[in-house]
């Protein structure tokens, strides 16, 4: 049973490292998509067709509300597309007309681009810095787990196999 403790410790440390890496990859992919839509995509006039709020609660803590905005626009080839964009300005109401940007191959993934919109590179940099802290802690824990396992003697030693090496 004692030999399992270092293995579990190392597995948890690996998860602590891999989860932030996965989040960072997803955030980077999202930023690249936004950049592609804003700089290389097509722009169209969109209209807010619905605004609604969802309310969530964890049971004991405070309730949280989130506004959702549904937009509709017509693509260059004449298709009507609806999409939801939580990043729309909070003052948006039904009937408002805003500019949307989309990649022609996937117009349902459009986004609202208000006047003066800039791709949020700074936000991504802060996200990477924050996640980098978790990755660094995870790496330290993984290395510590390996040493922890070595201290418990669960790491194979070549001498245990009757030789000097494999």
Automatic annotation (TrEMBL):
It comes from the Bacteria. The chain crosses the membrane at residues 6-25, 124-148. Residues 46-98 form the FHA domain. Keywords: Membrane, Transmembrane, Transmembrane helix. InterPro entries: FHA_dom. The keyword Transmembrane helix applies. This is FHA domain-containing protein.
